UniProtKB/TrEMBL annotation:
Sequence ranges of Low complexity compositional bias: 276-292
EC class of the enzyme, as a word: transferase
Organism from which the protein derives: Canis lupus familiaris
GO CC aspect terms: cytoplasm
Residues covered by the Protein kinase domain: 17-252
EC number: 2.7.11.1
Gene3D superfamilies found in the cross-reference section: Phosphorylase Kinase, domain 1 (3.30.200.20), Transferase(Phosphotransferase) domain 1 (1.10.510.10)
Family as reported in the entry's similarity comment: Belongs to the protein kinase superfamily. CK1 Ser/Thr protein kinase family. Casein kinase I subfamily.
Name of the protein: non-specific serine/threonine protein kinase
Keyword field contains Transferase: yes
Record has Nucleotide-binding as a keyword: yes
Upper lineage: Eukaryota, Metazoa, Chordata, Craniata, Vertebrata
Amino acid sequence: MASSSGSKAEFIVGGKYKLVRKIGSGSFGDIYLAINITNGEEVAVKLESQKARHPQLLYESKLYKILQGGVGIPHIRWYGQEKDYNVLVMDLLGPSLEDLFNFCSRRFTMKTVLMLADQLFLIDFGLAKKYRDNRTRQHIPYREDKNLTGTARYASINAHLGIEQSRRDDMESLGYVLMYFNRTSLPWQGLKAATKKQKYEKISEKKMSTPVEVLCKGFPAEFAMYLNYCRGLRFEEAPDYMYLRQLFRILFRTLNHQYDYTFDWTMLKQKAAQQAASSSGQGQQAQTPTGKQTDKTKSNMKAFFTMDSTAGEKSSVTQQEMKKSVQELICGDLKPTSPRLAGPIKLQLVRLDG
């Protein structure tokens, strides 16, 4: 674990990235806001002690290298060693979807949920695993008695049963994430138990005893169709990604929504800007001239899921600081100066077609 931010004031990594302050932490180490001293650009820096019992930063950097150029994958600037640390320098990202969910009073409209269903942006690949061999294209073998990997809230039923995870499990987990945003909570949240093992068992029992139709009651049938499809997949079977995506895209059009990248938090930001302008006497000057947004604006409004083994750990950032960070990003100039790289929403694994 990296030491406090105060001792890192003059710490420069990669020859040009100067650490500014700590913005998060996890089982691997700490995350810092840093500045590229050659051009002033802000980046995120992950530090991991070279003495870590279970080092994962090198592995994660290799996965990012494989995924570079993919939609929703942050750019990696540098990986190497500095002093006693493994260091990963990457794009500085905005608040997590959990932060934005709280900012929106834990209510997302169907339009926002469906746009998220169409495209998510992922970071933190400490738990990622290839589902097939690069050379032979052989799928990993079916196994049982596996420990639960990831966050129990979103874990697939097979993951709870100790079955090796594959592509189907990622898709099932995504379905639970979408229903979490639809419902504001899932039926298996808040269960009490004496031990973590007993809690996982209770979550598993509740998840298996809750019919998909009950979980998705009151919401468009496409969500139940999605989950039933995912649960019906065989271990090695490739999900029909286009079919699943079209389920939600057709629903989106049926509901007459416009794919304009106007999420719920975008509306709150615009409303806050107008109110601020009105109170200062500027009135119409603060209003958005058109409903259109530039690619740069769209990019800065991306929300990110994290995929890490640090689920449930307490962040070093206080709730008050987090709220301020999200408000600065959403109600400010859309520049992500206060990133959240480790929110509580986690998926299980990433399956790489490498």
